[in-house]
Amino acid sequence: MVKSQIQILPNPKQIQNPKSKTFWDLEIGIYLVVLVLLVVLGFLCGCQSRYLYKDSRVMMGTFVEVTSPDKQAAGIAFAEIKRIEDLLSKYKPESEVSQLNKTGKIKASPETIYVLKKAKEFWLASEGAFDITVGPLVQLWGFKDKNYYVPKDEEIKKILNLVGFEKILFKDNDNVVEFSFPEMSIDLGAIAKGYAVDCAIDKIRAAGITSCLINAGGDIYALGNRFGRPWRIAIQDPRGKKFFAYLELENQAIATSGDYEQYFLKRQKRYAHIFDPQTGYPANSGLVSVTVVAGDCLTADALATSLFVLGKDKGQKLAEKFPQTKIKLIEIKDIVKYGE
Ligand code: AMP
Ligand code: MG
């Protein structure tokens, strides 16, 4: 029979005190002093270990912020994100993406091929809403150098001939990437930051760090937790300066695509940086902000952009194709409901 763990203590009056009263008091006093010292020490150590190191840098055209109780985390993250930036940035002349955009054909590294294939997956899944060949549209509308311009319909039509993932050819056992038209260009702005965050998190994990938050301009991964509590992520109000809602995440990624960070106004009309590859115009699906929570940041990043182009109904259909990633599509009016 299993004995109960509860012990019945004798009545204190029945305890025979073998020690003298003064000695007894002195001993309690020492115990108390030691106890107080331990509590104070514990508190001080606790305070120290609860410190969060924060560092930020401008990388991949945005602010990258790293928060962690581990001092090493930021350095590891920045080094890895720089490596990805050197490979995939359209602004770095030596990057593989810039070389491809310049020459229309390159022998690419397996990593670049991996990201291009991932982009193709989202192009297929979104039925063309997500398309990295929007490069010429981004340029035509002036988003590449912030020299904004509303093109004429004919100009857009002409440029649309250069848009379409089917015009990217993979050759020689997928080692070589070639454009159907040399004037084409790719833009990994909707997927590369998410990929870079995932790579940085992998490196941070490999270094034995278990708690870290990386935020690359809204593409976020929350590794582990923050002293036993989930990381709290604020979602910005797309039409105000305040935060709209808070989400609590542990070992999950989150990305937001919206029309409120990169846009210009012309005759009181808003033109934002995410394009509908079918029309050649900035996406006009009725959404102003889409937030996606997924298991990895590349998926969250690419899906947020895809859903922003597709809008609510078609977007729901796409979200259903990714059940394993626990995607949550958040419309602006639904944002408060999130997390219920
Ligand atoms: P994000 O902020 O992640 O939604 O990415 C937006 C960026 O992706 C834009 O600034 C463009 O560089 C690029 N982009 C625009 N439209 C699309 C699209 N339909 N599919 C893929 N990338 C796009
Ligand atoms: Mg994106």
Radius of gyration: 28 Å
Q: How do the helices and strands follow one another from N- to C-terminus? A: HEEHHEHHHEEHEEEEEEEEHH
Instruction: Report the bound ligands by name, code or SMILES.
Output: adenosine monophosphate, magnesium ion
List the total number of helices: 9
Strand line-up of the largest beta sheet: 1-2-6-7-10-13
CATH topology name, in short, is: T-fold
Shape: globular
User: Termini, distance in Å?
Assistant: 46 Å
CATH class value: Alpha Beta
Largest sheet: 6 strands, antiparallel
Fraction of residues in β-strands: 15-25%
Low-confidence stretches: 1-24, 335-340
Summarize model confidence as the mean pLDDT.
85
The percent range for helix content is 25-40%
CATH architecture: Roll
Q: What count of structural domains?
A: 1
The class by helix and strand makeup works out as: alpha+beta
- Total number of strands: 13
CATH homologous superfamily annotation:
ApbE-like domains
Can you walk me through this structure?
The protein is α+β, with helices and mostly antiparallel strands and about 350 residues long. It has one domain: ApbE-like domains (T-fold, Roll), CATH 3.10.520.10. The protein contains nine helices and 13 strands. Strands 1-2-6-7-10-13 form a six-stranded antiparallel sheet, covered by helices on one side. Strands 3-5-4 form a three-stranded antiparallel sheet, with helices on one face. Strands 8-9 form a two-stranded antiparallel sheet. A hairpin with a 2-residue loop joins strand 6 and strand 7. The radius of gyration is 28 Å and the shape is globular. The two termini are about 45 Å apart. The structure holds adenosine monophosphate and magnesium ion. The site of magnesium ion has 7 residues, from strand 10 and helix 8.
